[in-house]
Amino acid sequence: MSGVDESAEPTRTPSVPDTATLDRMVDAEAADPEAELAKTEYSTDLGVAMAEDAKRVARGELSGDDYWEKYDRAAEAEFGDDYRETPNPAIDGDGQTVSRETAEGLGCAVGSMDSVAASVESEDGPDGDEKWGMVIDLQKCVGCDSCTVACKAENRTPPGVSYNVVMEEEHGEFPNVTRTNVPRPCMQCENPPCVQVCPVSATYKMDNGVVNVDYDRCIGCRYCMIACPYGARYFDFGENYDDEVTGSGEVTSPEYGVDRGPREGGESPVGNVRKCSMCMHRLNRGEEPACVETCVGDARNAGDLNDPDSDVSEMADSTRSFQLKESEGTDPNVYYLK
């Protein structure tokens, strides 16, 4: 006798539904555009229109030049000097949103974001040729939320701000039920609508693939929040966990390697939109993002997508690999394995 109980139930592996189901899960997490913008002092109608057209730019249905020629006067009227005095749209590098000729004809300044990008790069970090990406194996994710907790602890995010959420959904009927766990950080898109829509160039894409937010530029209009197809952006209302942890607002956040001191009303990042930056401060130290380091199921992997021999590059090129909401044209640097 083999000693094997052939009547026993076979071992079940996590179920990964089709991409349409996963994309629907993402949509369910997104904020309602009109409800979100109603909380701001800025035009809801303008924000919704700019966000929808920013997504069209990502999909290749509208050019960056046509986009800003369409919204230049409205943005200047709505945002005044905040729009006029900032280098928007960014025209430098491969990630340019408009041509220099078009930018020079707009009501905003023409300038480079290089100085801002340089301020969050470390001389002691990697050699500068990387394109950071992440691969998440959905067969390995057990839905423990350790990535969510690690991210909040690392980045000191306040109530209502969570860069890493794990979407969960059950499928089937008892007793044949499976659960899908889908971690969702910022996708660090190659064609990010959030960069396109920002009227003050507070959001910008770095050469290393990471999309960052300059808190000193951000005016909190939240147009980027509704332009993001993944619902991966949050507004900082200035709340703290003081009831749970005494003095929580006094702990300095390490984001972007900038020491901003204790959280205070009217001081960045309070009043700004915030998002996952793949723990840039850790990457610059040669460390993994906190969510990757903490993942108990080894489901998350981060590394250089430009290195064909790196683990993340090989996994991203595998037949199991896919991106969320591929039809949006955003080309995320976060991949999933089914």
TrEMBL record:
Presence of keyword Protease: no
SUPFAM superfamilies: 4Fe-4S ferredoxins
GO MF annotation: an example: oxidoreductase activity
Positions of region (Disordered): 1-39, 246-269, 302-338
Keyword terms: 4Fe-4S, Iron, Iron-sulfur, Metal-binding
Composition-biased stretches (Basic and acidic residues): 257-266
Signal peptide: none
4Fe-4S ferredoxin-type domain span: 132-161, 209-238
Alphabetical list of InterPro entries matching this protein: 4Fe4S_Fe-S-bd, 4Fe4S_Fe_S_CS, ET_IronSulfur_Cluster-Binding, Ferredoxin_N
The protein's name in its UniProt record: Prokaryotic molybdopterin-containing oxidoreductase family, iron-sulfur binding subunit
Species this chain originates from: Halogeometricum rufum
